[in-house]
User: Which sequence fits this backbone?
């Protein structure tokens, strides 16, 4: 039973129900604590106060790490207190040690349901169906009603990219708070935007492709490589960027080297092409 309407003592027996299944409906803040841990005793009233203040918008789950060692081990708990926020069945954020109420509120606000969520979902469906104009209109309306929801701006940038408006997408991403620029999702989108801004298209692409076949024109290598990225022909793109780096190292502020790094960001560190071309890039550097 909860010791307050939105606060639960969680054990191995009810973890799946309270935390994993519960987090599919609303965020669950999981506090790993122990009776001997003085910082835990300091943090617990702050968390309880927030649970009451938010009135059920999130659930607070308390796990005694000494008594529930299997759960602590399962989530790699190494110091106390450790607080994890679960959403849709998995941890999506966390902090360790005693934190001020304002910091915890900021973490919660990133993950709590918002009034604009339904509009975002509608816009995402429109974008997936190919209606980028409709998606953009829906997202702009959502942002007008919920100006603090930074995730809407990320969706707007995606819609603008789908419409071929890379410069506007770039300007939109620049308005995001600094911490969001560290998010993998945003970094990949930023990389895609930079390629879109230089990619050749249409007849111009055909002309530059002919120049690439005939020789090592740096502009042609750069802009055709960017076009290959946008068409998801990643191996061809990486090959052209490596060639640009090898033949014209200083071109456009080391566009070949920077383009490779951006492509690696876009594809992710575990992609086999990234591993292959990172080795090739390093061999050119040293």
Assistant:
């Amino acid at each position: 039973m909860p010791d307050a309407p939105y606060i639960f003592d969680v054990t191995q027996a009810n973890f799946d129900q309270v935390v994993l299944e519960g987090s599919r409906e609303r965020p669950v803040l999981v506090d790993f604590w122990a009776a001997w841990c003085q910082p835990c005793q300091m943090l617990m009233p702050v968390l309880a106060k927030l649970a009451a203040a938010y009135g059920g918008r999130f659930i607070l789950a308390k796990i005694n790490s000494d008594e529930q060692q299997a759960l602590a081990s399962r989530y790699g708990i190494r110091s106390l207190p450790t607080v994890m926020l679960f959403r849709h069945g998995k941890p999506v954020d966390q902090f360790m040690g005693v934190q001020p109420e304002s910091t915890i509120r900021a973490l919660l606000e990133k993950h709590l349901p918002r009034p604009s969520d339904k509009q975002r979902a509608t816009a995402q469906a429109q974008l997936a169906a190919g209606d980028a104009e409709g998606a953009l209109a829906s997202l702009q309306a959502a942002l007008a009603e919920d100006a603090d929801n930074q995730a809407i701006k990320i969706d707007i940038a995606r819609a603008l990219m789908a419409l071929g408006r890379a410069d506007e997408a770039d300007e939109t991403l620049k308005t995001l708070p600094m911490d969001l620029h560290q998010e993998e999702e945003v970094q990949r989108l930023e990389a895609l935007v930079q390629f879109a801004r230089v990619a050749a298209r249409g007849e111009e692409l055909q002309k530059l492709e002919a120049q690439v076949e005939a020789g090592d024109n740096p502009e042609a290598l750069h802009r055709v490589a960017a076009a290959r990225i946008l068409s998801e022909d990643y191996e061809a793109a990486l090959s052209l960027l490596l060639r640009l780096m090898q033949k014209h190292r200083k071109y456009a502020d080391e566009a070949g080297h920077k383009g490779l790094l951006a492509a690696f960001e876009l594809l992710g560190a575990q992609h086999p092409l990234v591993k292959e071309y990172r080795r090739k890039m390093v061999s050119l550097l040293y």
Summary: The chain has three domains: 7-111, 117-179, 199-285.
